[in-house]
Amino acid sequence: MKAIKKISLILCLTLLASTGLTACGKTKTEQKPESNKATQTEKKDENKKTRTITDHAGNKVEVPEKIERIVIDQIPILSTYMAYHHGKAPYIVGYAGSLKQVISNTVLKDIAPELLDSQNTVKAQSDINIEEIMKLKPDVIFYNASNKAHYEALSKTGIPCVGFATVGTNGPADPIDRYTQWLKLLEDVFGESGKTNDFIKAGQEIVKNVEERIAKIDDSKKPTGMILWKYTQGVPMVAGKGVFGDFWLKRIGVKNLADEVKGFAKVSVEQVYKWNPDILYLDGPGLLDITTKDVFANSVEGINFSNMKAVKDKKVYNTKLGMWNWFTPNPDGPLVLAWLAKSTYPDEFKDYDLKTMIKEYYKTWYNYELNDEQIKDMFNI
């Protein structure tokens, strides 16, 4: 028994000694790869960190904590995205080609020229290109929350998809409320709660001032209006009930004569004559090629503007492209409201220095100095 114990002890000591010598002999060659492996694992785990947010479609979306590559599908959010980043547009690697066409006609191309370097991921608003999107290796995709078909196609890629509300999603489509909702969802995406509070508050102050002035105007002085959204092959399309333009007119106390139809609606030329609005608003470049000059010259084929009250009274306003198309949600929203109010009620807003306010707004919030020529081109002042 003692002999067995002695042999066992000798074997154990021999094994320990052998193991120790082997470890010592290979310390440098073995520890280095172990160290690299630990570093790589740590980095990999860091890249896998996520946070869960709720988008405007009501979906719970798990997005990476570190976002460096973004693709934007269909939604006109680029200007709001730029405002969120205070005059820059980082991380965007691709977006709808139709949006790039809009940018080329706006001051946004001057503020954030990097946007023009991004790849087209959609040939048109309805033609999504999944293969091209996958090649861009985005960390996240922003899409129109009301477009279920696009969501189904995009979600199959396995890339986190965040839906942003436009028309027909998540409550009324008030463009001023909508762009602030976009800003708040961007805060969630980037994990930067409260980042845009001051910007939103500044806009709310402008809106409050404008609406207080409008509230003092007697209802008898508040006009009727109509927004010509598109005009294709002799068929007018108007901004009816529930769309962005409808809310703009409500904000400035103008009765939208087209609210008897819903959405962006096709109507007859005769219906436009019948409505005969006090003010005719044109949706502007990007959607409508007709200008105030065309209307006053009565040079548009298929429609006779000359007998309309708005034309006779010289009350036709073209909502030119500023930061974005004016009748869609955009960070210029408070400025759009001020411009509409000043155009609609020139006497009540004759002391309102819109030009100075625009310059200060852009300098403060977009870190960009506008010149007089740009303002004239943007806002038709």
Describe this structure in words.
The protein has 381 residues and is α/β, with parallel strands linked by helices. It folds into two domains: 144 residues, 3-Layer(aba) Sandwich (Rossmann fold); 147 residues, Nitrogenase molybdenum iron protein domain (Rossmann fold, 3-Layer(aba) Sandwich). The chain has 16 helices and 14 strands. The strands form three sheets. The protein has a six-stranded mixed beta sheet, sandwiched between helices. Strands 9, 10, 11, 12, 13 and 14 form a six-stranded mixed beta sheet that branches. β9 and β10 form a beta hairpin. α9 runs parallel beside α14. The chain is globular.
Task: Give a summary of the structure in a few sentences.
By secondary structure, the protein is α/β, with parallel strands linked by helices.
What descriptors fit this protein?
single chain; 381 residues; alpha/beta; Rossmann fold; 2 domains; six-stranded mixed beta sheet; disordered N terminus
From the 3D structure, determine the CATH topology of the largest domain. Rossmann fold
Number of helices: 16
Backbone CA Rg: 29 Å
Q: What is the CA-CA span between the terminal residues?
A: 108 Å
Strand order of the largest sheet: 6-5-4-3-7-8
SSE map:
Layout: H1 2-25, H2 27-48, E1 50-54, E2 60-64, E3 70-72, H3 78-84, E4 92-96, H4 97-103, H5 108-111, E5 119-124, E6 127-128, H6 130-135, E7 140-144, H7 148-155, E8 161-164, H8 175-190, H9 197-215, E9 224-232, E10 235-239, H10 244-251, E11 255-256, E12 264-266, H11 269-275, E13 279-282, H12 292-297, H13 309-312, E14 316-318, H14 333-344, H15 354-366, H16 372-379
Parallel strand pairs: 3-4, 3-7, 4-5, 7-8, 9-11, 9-13, 13-14
Antiparallel strand pairs: 1-2, 5-6, 9-10, 10-12
